[in-house]
Specification:
Order of helices and strands: HEEHEEHEHHEHEHEEHEHEH
Structural class: alpha/beta
CATH superfamily: Glycoside hydrolase/deacetylase
Number of domains: 1
Number of strands: 11
CATH class: Alpha Beta
Radius of gyration: 19 Å
Length: 283
């Protein structure tokens, strides 16, 4: 073996090893008991990311997460390929938490697991909400540390925004699934590449409920519910919020019962993003 060939071989081994370690950084394990949460720091590319053994947490094999990342690299995913009526409810947490408890109670009452895109600042401000999401089995995904428009930041600042949320999650024993949502829905080709390089899939939405707009143009809870229901599709993703609108309205929480019951009556199975993406990959 020539010296040049040996160098290439060693480089490939190092890259594969790093990918394997990083893949494991995001996978939670489905608890088999009600024991307290334990946190395990997994170091990948110099970054510590937390895993937990939280009760009720779902498991997607590391190898499947690697396939998910590969299949959706370079994309800000609006929906995933699906051949059955599956749909994901997702909730962003970056402002207040006025909707949070009602949303969690409704999801629990219907036996639904959702995915929550939280900022690090939200977790610092509302630690009880983050803990309640974790304890309910909900998935927590990365929505940056401070909800800045990443298209205006340097590469270093973009990475710091992701890392800040990860560190905040680690300090609170929160597991982060490998999905990322851009604040303001404002990705660029370059920032998507940075997000993918960090091990995340960039997730947008199929339908924005517009609950965050409040009663602009006469909008109300019925408008929000009808908008989500009418735009539901196989493999679709709904965007809603844990916070109230600027006018104090809470249309996302107000509409959630109707959204859930109607979609279920239509035959939809409401599942978290990990299951939605896992069902879509080419095995």
């Amino acid at each position: 073996m020539s010296y040049r060939t040996l160098k290439i071989f060693l480089a490939v081994v190092l890259v594969v090893g790093a990918i394997m370690v990083f893949s494991g950084a995001f996978t939670g394990s489905k608890g088999e008991s009600s024991a307290p949460h334990k946190t395990v720091a997994v170091v990948a590319d110099g970054v510590s990311v937390v895993k937990t053994d939280a009760a009720h947490e779902r498991t997607v094999p590391d190898s499947d997460y690697a396939k998910i990342r590969a299949q959706f690299a370079g994309k800000d995913v609006e929906k995933v390929p699906a051949h059955e009526k599956v749909f994901a409810l997702t909730f962003d947490g970056g402002g207040d938490a006025k909707n949070a408890q009602r949303i969690l109670d409704l999801l629990s009452a219907h036996g639904i697991t959702a995915t929550f895109f939280l900022t690090g600042h939200f977790m610092e401000t509302f630690p009880d909400v983050a803990a309640a999401i974790r304890n309910s089995g909900g998935e927590i995904a990365n929505h940056t540390m401070t909800h800045k428009d990443l298209s205006t930041l340097s590469q270093e600042a973009v990475i710091a925004e992701m890392a800040g949320m990860e560190q905040t999650a680690k300090e609170r024993g929160v597991s982060v699934v490998p999905f990322f949502r851009f604040p303001y829905g404002a990705p660029t080709k370059e920032t998507i590449a940075l997000v993918n390089g960090r091990g995340y899939v960039s997730v947008r939405w199929t339908v924005d409920s517009l609950g965050w707009q409040g009663n602009v143009n006469g909008h109300d809870a019925a408008f929000v519910a009808n908008r989500v229901i009418q735009k539901a599709v196989f493999g679709g993703i709904a965007l809603m919020h844990l916070g109230a609108a600027k006018d104090g309205s809470t249309f996302d929480a107000d509409a959630l019962e109707q959204i859930i019951t109607t979609l279920q009556q239509q035959g939809y199975r409401l599942i978290p993003l990990s299951e939605l993406f896992n069902a879509s990959i080419i095995k």
